[in-house]
Amino acid sequence: MRSSDTGPNVLKRTHHLAIIGVGILTLVLLNLPEPVEARVKSAIGAAFLPLFGLRAAADSVVDRAAYQALPRSTLVDHLLRLERENAELRVAALQTTDLLGENQRLRTAIGAAPRGPWRPKLARVVGREPTTWWRTLQINLGSRDGLAADQVVVSGSGLVGRVSQAGLTHSRVALVGDAECGVSVVVHETRDLGIIKPGQTLSGDGGLVELTLMQNCPGIMAGQTVTTSGLGGVFPAGLPVGTIVDTRNDGGNVFTTARVRLTANLNRLEEVWVLQP
Amino acid sequence: MNRSTLLFLALAVWLSAFAQTQFASLRDLLSVPVALGPSLVCYAALTQGPGAAIGLAVLGALLSDALSSAPLGSGIPAPFLLALTLHLQRHLILRDQRFAQFWIGFGAGVGVPLLTLATLAMTRAQPVTGAFTLLQLLGLGLVNGVACPVLFALFDLLHRAFDYRPLASTTFRPDRETVRGRQFRPR
């Protein structure tokens, strides 16, 4: 089983060739233009399609088995609760449609760009970032499903991130707190503006991110809610982001930094919504 | 080097790159992904030829980069250097000893991500790191330290199951056989 040893001269030549070859390959790959790099990544990532398919099939079997194991009374209870929620949501949707129409009319009257309703598309989380220093996840929708880079991703409880790379069948989502997902936010109670920057907390808790406010804001305190500001052009205004946990003044009291607990639990996501324009 | 072991290793590299993105619960528990790439490179470097070891290191890095947000190619230098160094020093390493396998795996688990971070520092990428990264590196070291002896045992088992055994040579030589005639009568 062990490899047979070859002469030292031959080995040296092989090693030199390997070093040169791998060095050139690395330099070429690192200097690829971004669109080409995305295509190459997508092509290599296609090697995992059978495994993603297997995983989806396994998930489906497990889900069905779980439903089979549930007693009928529990399922009926769930059904009744969902029907009630559905009825309530229909009424709320009627009211929202009316408000949206009014909002559009007012925006047209003042000459502001119209804000159309979102078309949410449900996606399943099929993988997470393989390393520890990025915050991304993979979803099972791609460009063939109409996904494109920079589309906003939310969960039922709040902002998740944005599509950073859309492949044909799968897409990568940069989560809030990743270097590729800076978010302009506003503190709901005080209307102070800030930016959520990439960073890691001491505890490594992925649910906590750092918010840097534009100035020293003495009114900021724990418990206040943070939503997207709409600035920057990627994220629409008003999406819930998180709640302030604590604050400190940095840079000689020039600006305030706050730790924010995200409303969406990024470690436990199974399904997300991609908001399409 | 033999083909079946190489095939199993390539399959393991492919599966381990995918496994790095899965097992969310275990990942939350350990605070690190189940990244067995460094251990596989160690095994390949200590038991296979230089071409196979380096090829597997590059393949694993490319597969991992394809699923990651990292720039493509940034994951190549670290496992390549590991494969090359271990292969060059394989005569000095007690590769059949479990404790040696653990420490090789541990060193690779810490060293490969550390070198990858160093590579990333030379690119435009902005990895999210902090003090907790040190603990994560330690966690990756432990995962690979534990995995390395297991992988050695598993691949040795696969090798015994699927490969031809070397022909055992005997000391018997027909030309040295004692010819016994009628004169010889045992008492």
How many β-strands of chain B, per DSSP? 0
- Side-by-side strand order of the widest sheet of chain A: 1-2-5-4-3-12
Main beta sheet of chain A: strand number and arrangement? Answer: 6 strands, antiparallel, barrel
Determine the number of helices of chain B (DSSP H or I, runs of at least 4 residues). Answer: 7
- What is the CATH class designation of the domain at 183-262 in chain A? Mainly Beta
How is the CATH topology of the domain at 183-262 in chain A named?
Answer: Thrombin, subunit H
Average pLDDT of chain A, rounded to a whole number, is 84
Helix content of chain B: 55-70%
Largest interface: A-B, 53 and 63 residues
What's the SSE pattern of chain A?
HHHHEEEEEEEEEEEE
Tell me the strand percentage band of chain A: 25-35%
Q: Give the overall average pLDDT of chain B.
A: 87
Total beta-strand segments of chain A: 12
Global morphology of chain B: elongated
Return the domain count of chain B: 1
Shape of chain A: globular
Number of helical segments of chain A? 4
Secondary-structure topology with pairs:
The complex is a heterodimer of chains A (277) and B (187).
Chain A lengths: L7 H23 L3 H12 L3 H21 L2 H39 L8 E10 L7 E4 L12 E3 L4 E8 L4 E5 L7 E5 L5 E5 L10 E6 L11 E4 L11 E11 L4 E8 L8 E6 L1
Antiparallel strand pairs in A: 1-2, 1-12, 2-5, 3-4, 3-12, 4-5, 6-7, 6-9, 7-8, 8-11, 9-10, 10-11
Chain B lengths: L2 H17 L4 H7 L6 H11 L2 H18 L9 H12 L9 H24 L10 H31 L25
Helix pairs in contact in B: 1-4, 1-7, 3-4, 3-5, 3-6, 3-7, 4-5, 5-6, 6-7
